């Protein structure tokens, strides 16, 4: 692919088993800046998958490797090896993926995930305290874990990853809490998300065409609204503007067009002049292999893998009725 900012060469190949389960993928990419015959980088990645032998479709192993030359960060860290362990009492309940462990409620919803095993004294109801403030508005306590010194006394907060989740009676996620964010989610009568807020930001979802985002950076002018334009069910452009509309023609200059692949994933985003704004390449389950934004790029566009919104607070893709964790390849 040739653009004004350079030239890309990318290919990916896939292998499947007799049950049409993906077992191997190889990807190669090169990026040549404009008017240069020397590549800025070359990258090759491979991922190998092993599934259970019972025909349940459970992933048992995922081995991911990547080389980048010269060494630089071009996307997610794709060097990892994950083994999967499932609860023998349930067909698909994952309890461990690599060093990450999971706890569930009675409905099968994840209520806690952390790096490192759970203490034997912990149980399913001890991870969070839920308070309801009004209809569909909940909060939960901090998701830090405490550690003990040699005397057995609690001395502070651990630095290992830990996140708790809270679900309502309709099995909708209403809060996620970790060391970085305490996020709450509200839903409309149609079951779709209508509000997402943290300590310093809030996003209102009026419908699939309109959102309003407010954070500490844009609250002085009422936040920033986004207008999504569709061709049928396919999002083709997002227009951004200040909510107070005091900047003339801002919406015209902040138009971002999606150029999607066969899955609907945004692989190239161009601005109002047709110039490259962002280029993204994905691994099969939505991991970010390459993400390059031009030098003037300051707007975060959340619609990426398969055209779905990725939540910055959790790194999960929101699919309406469920969420996708791209690294661990699990819903």
Task: Please summarize the sheet with the most strands.
Answer: 21 strands, antiparallel
Q: Rg, please?
A: 22 Å
SS field, number of helical segments:
1
What do the pLDDT scores average to? Answer: 87
Give your account of this protein's structure.
- With about 325 residues, the protein is an all-beta fold.
- The chain has a domain at about 100-185.
- Helix content is about 0%, strand content about 50%.
- It is globular and about 60 Å long.
- Residues about 125-130 and about 145-155 have low confidence and may be disordered.
Question: Which structural traits does this protein have?
Answer:
single chain; 331 residues; mainly beta
Could you give the topology of this structure?
Blueprint: E1 2-3, E2 6-16, E3 22-33, E4 41-51, E5 59-69, E6 80-86, E7 94-97, E8 100-104, E9 110-115, E10 130-134, E11 137-140, E12 146-148, E13 154-157, E14 162-167, E15 173-177, E16 182-187, E17 193-197, E18 201-205, E19 210-215, E20 224-231, E21 234-242, H1 250-253, E22 255-260, E23 266-270, E24 276-282, E25 288-293, E26 309-310, E27 317-318, E28 323-324
Antiparallel strand pairs: 1-2, 2-3, 3-4, 4-5, 5-6, 6-7, 7-8, 8-9, 9-14, 10-11, 12-13, 14-15, 15-16, 16-17, 17-18, 18-19, 19-20, 20-21, 21-22, 22-23, 23-24, 24-25, 26-27, 27-28
């Amino acid at each position: 692919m040739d653009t004004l900012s350079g030239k890309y060469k990318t290919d990916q190949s896939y292998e499947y088993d007799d049950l049409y389960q993906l077992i191997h993928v190889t990807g190669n990419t090169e990026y040549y800046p404009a008017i240069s015959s020397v590549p800025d980088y070359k990258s090759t990645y491979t991922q190998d998958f092993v599934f259970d032998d019972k025909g349940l479709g459970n992933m048992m192993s995922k081995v991911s490797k990547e080389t980048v030359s010269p060494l630089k960060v071009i996307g997610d860290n794709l060097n990892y090896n994950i083994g999967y362990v499932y609860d023998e009492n349930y067909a698909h309940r994952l309890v461990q993926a690599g060093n990450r462990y999971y706890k569930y409620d009675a409905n099968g919803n994840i209520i806690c995930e952390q790096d490192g095993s759970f203490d034997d004294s912990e149980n399913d109801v001890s991870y969070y305290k839920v308070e309801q403030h009004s209809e569909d508005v909940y909060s939960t306590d901090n998701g830090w874990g405490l550690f003990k010194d040699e005397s057995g006394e609690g001395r502070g907060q651990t630095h290992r990853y830990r996140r708790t989740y809270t679900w309502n009676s309709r099995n909708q996620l209403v809060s996620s809490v970790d060391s970085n964010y305490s996020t709450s989610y509200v839903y409309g009568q149609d079951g779709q998300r209508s509000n997402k807020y943290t300590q310093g930001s809030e996003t209102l979802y009026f419908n699939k065409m309109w959102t309003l985002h407010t954070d500490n950076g844009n609250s002085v002018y009422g936040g920033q609204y986004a207008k999504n334009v569709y061709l049928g069910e396919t999002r083709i452009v997002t227009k951004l503007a200040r909510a107070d509309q005091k900047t003339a023609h801002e919406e015209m200059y902040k138009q971002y067009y999606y150029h999607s692949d066969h899955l609907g994933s945004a692989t190239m985003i161009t601005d109002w002049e047709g110039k490259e704004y962002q280029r993204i390449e994905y691994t099969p389950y939505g991991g970010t292999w390459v993400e390059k934004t031009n030098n003037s790029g300051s707007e975060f566009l959340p619609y990426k893998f398969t055209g779905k919104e990725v939540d910055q607070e959790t790194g999960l893709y929101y699919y309406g009725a469920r969420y996708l964790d791209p690294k661990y390849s699990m819903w």
